[in-house]
C-alpha cells in the first residue's frame, strides 16, 4: 500500500470542474496516512462546498487570506510551514499564471509563496488553454523552480473537447504524491537516534527533567525510515506515537539511555543524539517521599555521563551527529561543542524557540562548514538534515 504516514498535505483547490474529485482525493490521502488540511479559492467553492471538504478532512477549510477567526486558529504562514507538501489540485490556468508571477492575492497563492515544503500542481483546464504558449511558458518556469507537475491527463473534457487538460485521477495523484517522499538515499543505513528528555528521580514522586518534547527526534526517525534507513529510537518519556517501522526503546534516566545506546551500537552507521539528557542527577534517590521541613533544602547532584561523547570516542565509531540547543551565541557555542564532543556534525538551534514547538530554525555545523537550513516544520527540517547527513556519508 502507498504510504504517506506522518505527511502533512495542504490540499489547495482552485476553481475548475475537477474540484469535485477532491472529495475522493482527500479520502485517499487520509487513508494512506496523511494529515490533510484544505485551502480553497472562492471560485472552487462553486464546484465543491467547503462543508464537504471540512467533513472529509476533519479540519476547518481555509478560504480567505484575511479571516481573523481562521488566522487565530492557524495563520496562513503557520499553515505554509506546517505542510510537507502543498498539492494544488485542480490548478487552473489562471492560478498557474498567478503563482508564476509570485502573486499573493489569495490564501492559496500566498501559501505557495510562503512555503518551503514540496509543491505539486495538478493542472486542469480546456485543452486549448493548456496548449497555449502562455500556459506552457508558465509551466516551464514552475518546473525550473522545482515544482512537481502532475499531469494533466488526456481525454474527453467537460466542455466537450478532447485532448490534454483533464485533472489526473485521485488514485494517480496519491501515487505521485507518495513518490515525492521516497528518496531512498539512506537505504541500507542503520541509524540510532536518542530523543526526548531524561528524568532523574529525587524521590518516588519527584524528578528533575526538562521541556524537550521529543518531536525533533521522532521526525528524524520517521524521515530516516522514509529515506530507506533502519532506525532504532531510544526515547526518554514523551507523549508521541512511535513512527511506523521504527524500533523504539523506552528509557527514563540518562544512565539507562547510555546503556541502551551502547547496546544498539552494533552495526550502527549514524548516531544522532537529539535527546535533552539531564546534565546532573541527584546523588541519592530517597526511597520515601521527602517531607517538607526547613525553609531551604539542598539537593546534591552528580554529573551524568555524556552519551554522545562516549559514542564519539568508540574505536569503531559511527558518523556522530549532535544537537546544541543554545539560548545565546548559537553558532560559536555550537562550534565549541562540535570540537569538545568530537562530533562529525552538529545542528545548532535556539532552545527558547524550539522546545515543544513544531517549527525550527537550525544551522548545520561541521569542522569546515556552516550551513543555515531553511526554516520550516520539524519534518521538513528533518528531511533537509538527513540530506546533509547522506551527502556527508557519501563523501566519507
Ligand atoms: N548529550 C548527551 N549526553 C549528555 C548531554 C548531552 O548525549 N549527558 C548530547 C545531546 O543529545 C546533544 C549534545 O550532547 O546531541 C549537546 O547537548 P547539550 O545539552 O547542548 O550539551 P551539554 O554538554 O549539556 O552542554 P551545555 O553545557 O551547553 O549544557
Shape: elongated
Enumerate the spans where pLDDT stays under 50 for 5 or more consecutive residues: none
**Terminus-to-terminus distance:** 35 Å
What is the residue-mean pLDDT, rounded to a whole number?
Answer: 92
Main sheet properties: 8 strands, mixed
Q: What would CATH call the homologous superfamily of the largest domain?
A: CoaB-like
Q: What would you say the CATH architecture of the largest domain is?
A: 3-Layer(aba) Sandwich
Q: How many domains?
A: 2
Biggest sheet: strand arrangement = 12-11-8-13-16-17-19-20
The amount of beta strand, in percent, is 15-25%
Roughly how many Å is the radius of gyration?
24 Å
Share in helix: 25-40%
> Helical stretch count?
15
Q: Can you identify the CATH class of the largest domain?
A: Alpha Beta
Unique bound compounds:
cytidine-5'-triphosphate
Number of strands: 21
What characteristics describe this protein?
396 residues, alpha/beta, Rossmann fold, 2 domains, five-stranded parallel beta sheet, 15 helices, 35% helix, binds cytidine-5'-triphosphate
Question: How would you characterize the overall build of this protein?
Answer:
This protein is of the alpha/beta class and 396 residues long. It has two domains: 8-179, Flavin prenyltransferase-like (Rossmann fold); 190-287 and 297-395, 3-Layer(aba) Sandwich (Rossmann fold). Helices cover 35% and strands 24% of the residues. It has 15 helices and 21 strands. It has helices at 22-31, 50-57, 68-73, 76-82, 93-101, 107-114, 127-131, 133-144, 170-179, 215-226, 254-263, 307-312, 330-341, 351-354, 378-395, and strands at 8-13, 35-40, 85-91, 118-123, 148-149, 153-156, 162-166, 190-195, 200-203, 206-208, 230-235, 247-250, 270-273, 280-282, 301-303, 319-326, 345-350, 359-360, 362-365, 370-372, 376-377. An eight-stranded mixed beta sheet has the order 12-11-8-13-16-17-19-20, sandwiched between helices. Strands 2-1-3-4-5 form a five-stranded parallel beta sheet, with helices on both faces. Helix 4 crosses helix 6. The longest helix has 18 residues, at 378-395. The protein is elongated and about 80 Å long. Cytidine-5'-triphosphate binds at residues 194, 254, 273-275, 277, 279, 304, 306-308, 322-325, 337.
Amino acid at each position: 500500500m502507498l504510504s504517506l504516514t506522518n505527511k502533512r498535505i495542504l490540499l489547495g483547490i482552485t476553481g475548475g470542474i475537477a474540484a469535485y474529485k477532491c472529495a475522493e482525493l482527500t479520502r485517499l490521502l487520509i487513508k494512506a496516512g496523511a494529515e490533510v488540511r484544505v485551502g480553497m479559492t472562492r471560485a472552487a467553492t462553486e464546484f465543491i462546498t467547503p462543508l464537504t471538504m471540512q467533513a472529509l478532512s476533519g479540519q476547518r477549510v481555509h478560504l480567505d487570506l484575511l479571516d481573523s477567526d481562521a488566522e487565530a486558529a492557524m495563520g496562513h504562514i503557520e499553515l505554509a510551514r506546517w505542510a510537507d507538501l502543498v498539492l494544488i489540485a485542480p490548478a487552473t490556468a489562471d492560478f498557474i499564471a498567478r503563482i508564476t508571477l509570485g502573486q499573493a492575492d489569495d490564501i492559496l497563492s500566498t501559501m505557495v509563496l510562503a512555503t518551503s515544503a514540496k509543491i505539486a500542481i495538478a493542472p486542469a483546464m480546456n485543452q486549448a488553454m493548456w496548449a497555449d504558449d502562455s500556459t506552457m511558458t508558465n509551466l516551464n518556469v514552475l518546473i525550473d523552480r522545482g515544482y512537481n507537475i502532475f499531469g494533466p491527463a488526456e481525454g474527453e473534457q467537460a466542455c466537450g473537447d478532447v485532448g490534454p487538460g483533464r485533472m489526473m485521477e485521485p488514485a494517480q495523484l496519491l501515487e505521485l504524491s507518495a513518490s515525492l517522499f521516497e528518496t531512498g538515499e539512506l537505504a541500507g543505513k542503520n541509524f540510532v537516534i536518542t530523543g526526548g528528555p531524561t528524568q532523574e528521580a529525587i524521590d518516588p514522586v519527584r524528578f528533575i527533567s526538562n521541556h524537550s518534547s521529543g518531536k525533533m527526534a521522532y521526525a528524524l526517525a520517521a524521515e530516516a525510515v522514509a529515506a530507506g534507513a533502519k532506525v532504532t529510537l531510544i526515547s526518554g518519556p514523551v507523549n508521541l506515537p512511535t513512527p511506523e517501522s521504527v524500533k523504539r526503546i523506552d528509557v527514563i534516566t540518562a544512565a539507562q539511555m547510555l546503556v541502551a545506546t551502547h547496546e544498539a551500537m552494533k552495526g550502527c552507521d549514524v548516531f544522532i543524539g537529539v535527546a535533552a539528557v539531564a546534565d546532573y542527577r541527584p546523588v541519592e534517590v530517597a526511597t520515601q517521599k521527602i517531607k517538607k521541613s526547613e525553609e531551604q533544602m539542598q539537593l546534591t547532584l552528580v554529573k551524568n555521563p555524556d552519551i554522545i561523547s562516549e559514542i564519539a570516542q568508540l574505536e569503531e565509531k559511527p558518523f556522530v551527529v549532535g544537537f546544541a540547543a543554545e539560548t545565546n551565541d548559537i553558532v560559536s557555542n555550537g562550534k565549541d561543542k562540535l570540537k569538545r564532543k568530537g562530533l562529525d556534525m552538529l545542528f545548532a538551534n535556539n532552545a527558547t524557540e524550539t522546545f515543544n514547538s513544531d517549527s525550527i530554525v537550525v544551522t548545520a555545523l561541521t569542522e569546515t562548514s556552516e550551513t543555515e537550513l531553511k526554516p520550516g516544520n520539524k519534518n521538513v527540517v528533518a528531511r533537509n538534515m538527513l540530506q546533509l547527513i547522506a551527502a556527508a556519508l557519501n563523501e566519507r
